[in-house]
Write a structure and sequence with these properties.
This is Camphor resistance protein CrcB. This protein is an alpha+beta fold and 148 residues long. 45% of the residues lie in helices and 22% in strands.
Length: 148
Amino acid sequence: MKRTILAGFAAATLAAPAMADTETMQATGSVAEVMDRLEAAVTEAGATVFARVDHGAGAEKAGMTLADSQLLIFGNPQLGTPVMQEDPLAGLYLPLKILAYDDGSGQVFVAYEEPEESFDDLAVDDDLEAIEKMENALEKFAKAAAGS
């Protein structure tokens, strides 16, 4: 009986959605246009673009369909390094990421996770200046990508 209860509890816990603080805003244009604006804003700010992941193209290659969705992975060692010096596990959440996606009805959104939330379970000081700078940069880049 104990095993059944524990197994049920574990299954329910694993099935629960993550409660991350995700910021989402409506965007104008196609996912590709939004990502082009995002990539330009990131590059103009002096950050490094590491990858642009096209989830829709990946789904298509797998013989599946997915509304258009792209992820930009970017960063700046001036901001990321101090966070990783406090806790190397921050590297699981860095570099930063912003997602542009079509909600399936033709509306495009931009989304990102607040860095402070990402580092919540780590030994990283919430008041670290680099985290505030990351949050400000993400908001600025997301607004530029959204066309607002």
